[in-house]
Every structure is written in structure tokens, then in C-alpha cells.
């Protein structure tokens, strides 16, 4: 990934290494494998945040097996990656301190210093240092460390030092110092091969050099732009493989480049793309930076209202990140753009949210979460009622510290309806010496009544009535049930009885006893059982439904014979419903068109309105000044410049909106009429794809349209439009994973009186066993994720019945899928 830049092959080898590590189950060496994968491979293809669990696992493995060198490396990358992901800074500082102490105990000097360096950068941003751009403070001192690092040739550490200083100097407006640190950091890039800091260096190096380009001498701009363009070629390639990590960085640098080249309209669009990309992918610090740079751009253009809006968003984003020093820096430099009252309100809201989250996590630390997860997985994985009840009793008694237990459920009729009575469905006991489960049996017909000596029915009926927990630490001597006949007879010590609730509905009762000791059911154990109770209730209900379904299936043949007439009517209703669903799918395509219209037209219209508002405001100011006789030549020139910019912006964006509306209008008319017409095929494909652009941008896919521009088709354009839309949406939904980006290709040619039409994607492909089913109605592999199974069925019907053509599909798993459609160049009706 880092040396020869073969990212695809490098990523495959990295995943293979992970697979082998888990398959071989060899403990030693795991830390090294996880460190290489998490720190040098994954971020080139997957979202950067996905690396943190991998290096965390590497750290834990290294500590367990004594591989302290790689454990300490992984500890550093946990901190380093969390910082560049945009982890909230206050929490991150505590996290870095903890891992720094752990590395210190492992006596690994270099990783300890690297963590300390990043921790000092965080402290600087938190406002806990005298100079935010110098790494000198409570955690670290660059002046003391750097000579030692140079002597030891710690090239990784030296690069990290200058990179951190580059970032801090750039953020706090020290432009020349940022350039100096960028030049020094570049000399040590060989020490950080394939790490995430490589693209981050190129990102901030470009921003820093663009920041001084306007001030550079006549001989320098070309060289600076060449440096930026070289960086951007690399960033473009990285963004191709991992757009979620790098595409917004590429767009932000392009926006700054457009700014210095005075390409104002391009800059506007690129800033918006950078902001959206950073926000959508969770990089809060880069979202804040994009807003800040956009605000400075608008301020320089004299568009103060734009600048005020964007600077407020930057202020808010930096606040959410926790960068107090940067927040204060903005407030001191741009007081005219920032309202202190609104800033304070947003900061207060953020702190409240952080405090609430921290409190919640602290209260959960007292619980044995590993036990909760293990129990929850075991419970949710069983759907046969008898097996589930046996498993439940074992898990619940083990986790509660009980001697015996009973699971009490509402009795049900053969049809599955509740009878209003409660019965013991399962019980379990523990051997008093070994403390292991001896039995877990069903007692299906034993009703909870006053004559039953197995448990305290008074407590059970109390919980049924109140839905409240009953915890008795010494049942004979304390609590409201000391006079209960069962407790008096058995001399019971500890009792726990809790309701099993699902969304407030009482689905069962868990009753536990321990006669060996008082205070057996501690608050932690009660809390753990409360966490499990909802899962238990849901699992019991699912198991009962499964049991009822089995009973229904056993009687299905008889029911079919008895209700043939009813089923015939049901079949007719089903066909009618299918037709309605097909129509619904067609309307969905039209709805997608409307959404595309709104999204595509919103930007030019919004910019035009804002520009028109600015023009009106400046015109009013000019008129008042002119009327009062105080008009100066400089004011006139400034007004004329603003007026020309705003007028040009209004005209350009309204023309763009008009062109879009014309295209959308024709496509919409086609989808709502049943008329044939002759049209240019390539141009029409381009128009149909326009409304799909928002979806394609969101999923990072590209569409390419090939074919002879002279080919015309006489047919039903509405049908063809829906075919194209359904094919594209089918590929986006089924051919790619959410993090993938893909390439979709339309191609066509004419052979005699026939048009040969190809649609290809480079997605995961269709398994052979599914290939002959894809045009069947209601066949889908996304049943639980919103798929209807009608998209390709509609395509098949439109091609074969409406357009008198044929369609077939070729696919290879791991390579992609191709649809071949053959249409007559002129449909006769």
C-alpha cells in the first residue's frame, strides 16, 4: 500500500493476514499482524475509524503474550488514530494519559514519547498551554526531545513532531512557520511509510502553501502550485480507493486553489463538497476547517452575510470537537462575525451532552458486561421453546448467584392465545457444593396457585400486579412478606422476583432463591438481570411464535383442503396487490425524479437568491448614499464591483436551473404519458441519469455513457427511463457494500433495425444459483432491508412486453454484472 502504491493488492494481503491469524489461533505474532493491518493497510480502503478496534485488539494481544514492543506501537496508534478521526478532545486527553502510562510500564521509550507529543497537541487545542503552536507543556517538551530524537535517528517521531507543528501553526494562522514545518516534515516521510499521516501531511502541506501563495513573490507562485498539484494527484488516487477518508480533503484543497486563482464560482461549489464530505463521514475537525476557510473566502469577497453564517458553523464545530483554544482564536480574530450569546448557548448545549454521556458510561462500568453479552447472545440464538427455557434457567441462575429458579409465563391455548393464568414453564436448581446446574426441566401444567409449595405465590402475584422488582435480602426478618406462609415454612433468606417486560408488556416472571446466605442478590446482579430481562422477554415471545408456526404448519394441508375457495380468492387478491406494487414501484421512480429535481436545482437557486439579496442590499446602500450627496468614487467602484459579481452569479445560476428544469420536465412528461416519440439515445440517457446524481454522489459511484451520438430511437421514452432508473438502483442496492465505490457503464450500438444496449457494473456479481431468478417477481436478497423484489421484474416486463425487446444477464462473482437488452429501433403498435 505504501511502497509501490498497489492499494488493492496490499489490502487483500492485509485481510488475508487477518484471516490467517484468526484461523491459526496462534497467540504470539497477533500483535504484529494487527499493528501492520490497523496502522498501515486498512485506512487505504476502509473508513479510518475501523482501524481503532484492530489496533486495540493488537494492544490487548501484545500485553497478554508479552509482545510489548508491538503492544506499545498499537497503544500509540490507538491515540494517534483517535486524534485524526476527530475524537472529542477532553475524553481523548484522558485516553492518551492512560495509554501513555501503560507504555511507560512496558518501558518502550519511543512510543511513550510519541503519545506524549500527541497528548501535548491535544492539550494545546484544549487551551492548556501558553503557545498553542509550540509543543511545550505538562506532557511534552519539543526542545528537550528533538536533539535526542535526531541523535537516535527516530525518523518516525521526528516526522510526527513537525507534522503536529505544521497542523497547529496552520490552524492558528502562523503561515510562515507552517511552511517551515512542512518542509522539515517532508524530509522524514520515509519514517512513516503507509501510515495515515502520509495523506494528512500532503493535505496540510497543500493548505499551508496555498495560504501563502497570494503573498508570494512573482517567481514563486508557479512552483508552489506545482507542489500542490503533485500532492493533489496523490490525494486523487487515495480518494479513488477510500473516498470516505480522502475525497473531502481533496475537495477542500481544490477549493483553496480556486480561491487563490480567483475562480470564485468553482470555489463556492468545492467548499460545499468539502463541508458535506467531512460532515457525512464524521471528521468533525475537518468539517470545522472547511467552514472556516469558506467563511474567510466569503469575507474576502465582501459577502459578509455568507461569511457570518459559515464562521458560526466553524465555531460550533470546533466547540463540539473540544478545541477551546481554536474557538477563542476565532472569537478574537472575527468578533464582527461571531455572536457571543449564540456561541455560549451552543457551547453549553455541547457540554451538557458530553456530561450526560460520561455519566451514563460510568454507571455501566460496575456491571459485568462480558457476562451480559455472552448471555444475550446465547438467549437470542435459540428459537425452540424447550431448548430456550433450559438455556435461560442455566444462564439466569449462574449470573444471579441463585440456588433455584423458576420461569413463570402466561398459559396459552392450543391456538396460542393467553388464558389469563400463569404457569411454571421451567425450573432449575444448583448443587450446593459444586454450584453447577443439575437440572432444567419443563413443568408445563403446574399452575401458580396458593396450594403450590414451590415458591412464594404472594410475591409472584405482587409482581404480576405491579410490574415492580421484589428484592428480599433476608426474607424471614425484613420486607413486606415476612408473614407469608411459604417464607415462614421454608425460612427463606434471599429472594429475587422480577418482571420480564417488552415495551411495557409483561411477558413473564423470573423468580430466584438462595437459602445459603442473605444479601445474595446484590444491586449489580439485579441490574444485570434487568438488562437481560428485555432480551429474555423478546426471545420467549419469538420462541412461542416459532412453536405456534410449527403447529400451524402441521395443520396446513388440512387447512388448504378446507379453504380452497378462500385461497383462490386470496390468490386473486395477491395478484391485484402485485399489480399495485408494480405501480407503486413506478411512482417511486417518479418520486426519485422529483427528489433529484429538488436536490439539483436547490444549489443554483439558493445561490441566486442569496446573491440577489446581496445585490438589493448594496443597491439600497448606494441609493441612500447617492441621495444624501455623500457618494465617493471608491464607494461607487466598490458597489459596481459587487453588483457585477452578484448579477453574474444570479444570471449564471438561473440559467443553470433553467437548463436542469427543461431536462427534468421532458423526463417527467415521458414517465407520465404513454406516447411514442423519436429521440437521441445518448442525450436522453444523460438526462435520465441527472436525477440520480444525489444518490450516486452519496454512494461514491460514477456513471459513464458510451455509444454513437448519432443513434436515434423511436419508442416509449417513459418506459426506457424507468428501465434505466431501475437498473442503476438495482446495482447501487445489490452490487456493492455500503463503503464501496463503483463504475456503472451504459453502452449501445445499432445493428440493422436493432439497438444492442449494454448496462454493466463492477460490483460483487450474482451467484449462479440466483442468476435465473433475478427477473422473477418478489425475488430479492434484501428482504429485511427494504427490498421488494420488483425492480428487475418491472424491467423485464417493460423490455419484453412494452418495447418488444429481449433482455438477458451475465454475471461473475467478484467481477461484475452485465445486462444485454436488444430493442427494435422503432416500436410498432
> What is the count of DSSP helices, taking H or I runs of 4+ residues?
30
Average pLDDT level: 80
Stretches where pLDDT is under 50 for at least 5 consecutive residues are 341-370, 432-446
Query: Compute the gyration radius: what is it?
Result: 34 Å
Q: Main beta sheet, described?
A: 6 strands, antiparallel
Let me know the number of strands.
13
Helix content: 55-70%
Class inferred from helices and paired strands = alpha+beta
Give the overall shape: globular
Strand order of the largest sheet: 3-2-1-6-5-4
Taking the alpha carbons of the first and last residues, their distance comes to 58 Å
Describe the protein in words:
The protein is of the alpha+beta class and 829 residues long. It is 62% helix and 11% strand. The strands form three sheets. The protein has a six-stranded antiparallel beta sheet, with helices on both faces. A five-stranded mixed beta sheet has the order 8-10-11-13-12, covered by helices on one side. α10 (197-213) packs parallel to α12 (243-260). The longest helix is centred in the last third of the chain and has 64 residues, at 564-627. The two termini are 58 Å apart.
Keywords:
829 residues; alpha+beta; six-stranded antiparallel beta sheet
Please specify the SSE layout and strand pairing:
Elements: H1 7-24, H2 30-40, H3 51-65, H4 68-85, H5 89-105, H6 109-125, H7 142-152, H8 155-171, H9 175-186, H10 197-213, H11 221-241, H12 243-260, H13 264-280, H14 284-300, H15 304-321, H16 324-333, H17 340-364, H18 369-380, H19 385-400, E1 404-412, E2 418-430, E3 437-441, H20 457-466, E4 470-472, H21 485-490, E5 494-502, E6 505-514, H22 523-554, H23 556-562, H24 564-627, H25 633-672, E7 677-680, H26 681-689, H27 693-698, E8 702-705, E9 712-715, H28 717-734, E10 743-751, E11 754-761, H29 768-771, H30 791-802, E12 806-812, E13 816-824
Parallel strand pairs: 8-10
Antiparallel strand pairs: 1-2, 1-6, 2-3, 4-5, 5-6, 7-9, 10-11, 11-13, 12-13
